[in-house]
User: Fold this.
Amino acid sequence: MRLSLSGTVERVGVSGLYCFSLMAITGVSGAAFGLFLMLCAWMASLRTVWPCIRRDPVFWIVLLCGVYLLVSATVAARIFPDTADHQWWQAKQWGYLVLLPVVAWWLGGSGRRILVAFGLFCLGGIWRMLNNTPWQDLGDWLGVGMPPWGFGLWHISFSAYLAVILLGVILFSPRLVRGAGSYPLGGLTAAGLVVVALICLVGILVGQSRGTWLAMLVVFPPVLFMYFRRLQQSRWAMGRGYLLVAVVLASLLSAIAVLPAHDALLARLSAEWEVYAALLTGDISQVPITSVGARIHLYHHGVNQWLESPWFGWGAGSQAYLIQQTGLFTGAYVAPHYHNIVLEILLRFGLLGLGLIMAILSLVMHALWRGYVQGTIAVDWYYFFLGVFLFSLVWGMADIRIIRWDYRNFTLLVLGAAYSLGVLASARREQLAGLSRYP
Assistant:
């Protein structure tokens, strides 16, 4: 009876995980329902969960972050009473991230379970693309002057999701193709991965997110170089012929994706020359308020505002008040945030808040590195998480979307998977030993 009950709870938790993964960037309600199932199952399994997490420093730091968030919002609401409602609303958005241990628990430290979750995330992203593409005006849509397109989401964040999916397709393709076996299943798997890669490339290009393009250019080449170099030393080593075919295929895919919209891409890249010229003069006051120019001014004012309260910041929801104080935006448009994840955390939560977040990331990445060195974490998983973390860091230098439902779900899934595989893996494998028949 006890085994049956444990198995039922495990099924509920994993069902919630897969629902959450599929709907993470597809629907608010579906993702929330998946989180709700995971949380209920986690609470029902608390007697099993507690022995595994009570000595885990990441769990306690996450809880401490939640407490700090409540204290920060309370103090800021008292100091700036006009912003009280916004303080609590923003604190709630950040507070969802406290569910990180719940998501990590149901990912189970299992490479198979994590791979299925990411496959469902990829499927949800492609479904959103297909469902929000203007098929009847496809030629005009890809032409000169096309606006940035995010397929129903903000184009900057959706481009980032597609870049992560593309990285995953490249890194996991040897595992997936070899796992599928010989012809025809192996060939069909390879063809499917090529199609997914092409879809992602097109989506990234029409998204026109220069921050995504820059992050891909900076992060992907060195990560892929290190991965394929390490892969050649493993049991999945590919011959030079296969590598040559892969390079040629990647070049053809890039050309197919870029050529139809290359005029629009050049226009997007050259739209900020005036800003770059003004920056070279060293006089920030001469920088015009454009997409990039507004960021430069926000960074300048944001650093000065942070220095006024460096240790504890200004509160979870004080960014609107602080941006208003800069006097930069007098028209209809007002920047909703400072377009930089590090600066935003410093302004909201100070050095103490940034230190807590960096402690979580450092512990997770160190656990992944240790597992990779010891051989308990596969090469493709390690370089995938390394690539995603570095990509997110570079991408976050120009934007912040973590308080939006889709990027928050994305963060919970990716960071939860890394936390699960690197920190919780051994404890969860032992706990799942008696439930091996459940996915």
